[in-house]
């Protein structure tokens, strides 16, 4: 019984367990737990092998890192199914909208994350280099799905692909900072001036600019500043790399188990990051 395992983790009797809707794009089961003393917690439960692996990665971070930018870690059980028990943030504000000062709060949290000594077991961002950097090469092999969205012409793509691919492959993702690497509004809870990041299954060690660069497109879609305002010092390879990553994926069915709306989100982000790459690399206008 999930309730019994949660009670053992928390060393407290459970009064009720209620399924809650998640805002993220992974299929893990999410539960609001109420204990007999009236306190609450959030439980994330694996539903397949992939989500069990993601919870194990999150546990690496939660069990070794403490900070206001993290939910409080309450327990982890790698049994069947794996479950992670965390601070209940259901009463926090989950953007959008973005209240005054909230973007600055997230930027402050990202600075603290980057200044945190990375926990043992978190991989280098370099393990994602091929996945991130080769998007345009794969689009070149089969451009039809990407071109079907009419973001650019076949002629524009043929002319600019060499520059995009070279920039993406050269993007300086390496570094020594802890990264969340999946900064989006569905992974951010706001409590006053505290910004809390959840879903740490992509945590890695790399260039701290990456967390802001990967956040910039979705933030702009939600009414935030332009990418250049958020990341003025961004290497041009980052928007080229991100554009290739999403350009490859938007035209294909979502992976099994992915939440509805994943491809729509990626297309919206591509609509921001592709023009950003054009500006950053001084490419011909999209057409």
Count of all domains: 2
The span between the termini is 57 Å
Structural class: alpha+beta
Major beta sheet, strand line-up: 1-2-3-5-4
Strand content: 5-15%
Radius of gyration, CA atoms, in whole angstroms: 20 Å
The CATH topology of the largest domain is Aminoglycoside 3'-phosphotransferase, Chain: A, domain 2
Task: Give the SSE layout.
Elements (H helix, E strand, L loop, with lengths): L1 H9 L3 E6 L9 E7 L4 E6 L3 H14 L10 E5 L5 E4 L15 H13 L14 H5 L1 H7 L2 H4 L6 H16 L7 E3 L8 E4 L2 E4 L6 E3 L2 H13 L5 H4 L6 H13 L12 H20 L6
Antiparallel strand pairs: 1-2, 2-3, 3-5, 4-5, 6-9, 7-8
Helix pairs in contact: 5-7, 5-10, 7-10, 8-11, 10-11
């Amino acid at each position: 019984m999930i309730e019994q395992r949660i009670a053992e983790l928390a060393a407290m009797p459970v009064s009720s367990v209620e399924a809650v809707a998640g805002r993220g794009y992974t299929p893990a089961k999410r539960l609001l737990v109420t204990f007999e003393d009236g306190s609450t917690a959030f439980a994330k439960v694996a539903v397949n092998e992939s989500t069990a692996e993601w919870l194990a990665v999150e546990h690496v971070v939660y069990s070794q890192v403490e900070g206001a930018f993290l939910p409080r870690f309450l327990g982890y059980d790698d049994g069947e199914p794996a479950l992670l028990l965390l601070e209940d943030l259901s009463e926090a504000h989950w953007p959008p909208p973005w209240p005054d000062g909230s973007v600055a709060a997230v930027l402050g949290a990202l600075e603290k994350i980057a200044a945190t000594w990375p926990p043992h077991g978190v991989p280098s961002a370099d393990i994602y280099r091929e996945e991130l950097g080769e998007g345009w090469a794969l689009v070149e092999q089969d451009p039809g799905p990407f071109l079907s969205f009419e973001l650019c012409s076949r002629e524009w793509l043929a002319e600019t692909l060499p520059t995009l691919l070279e920039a993406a492959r050269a993007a300086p993702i390496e570094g020594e900072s802890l990264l969340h690497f999946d900064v989006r509004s569905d992974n951010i809870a706001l409590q006053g001036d505290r910004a809390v990041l959840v879903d740490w299954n992509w945590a890695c060690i790399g260039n701290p600019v990456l967390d802001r660069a990967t956040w910039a497109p979705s933030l702009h879609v939600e009414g935030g500043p332009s990418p250049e305002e958020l990341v003025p010092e961004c290497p041009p390879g980052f928007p080229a790399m991100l554009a290739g990553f999403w350009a490859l994926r938007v035209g294909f069915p979502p992976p099994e188990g992915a939440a509805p709306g994943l491809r729509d989100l990626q297309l919206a982000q591509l609509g921001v990051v592709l023009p950003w790459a054009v500006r950053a690399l001084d490419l011909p206008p999209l057409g």
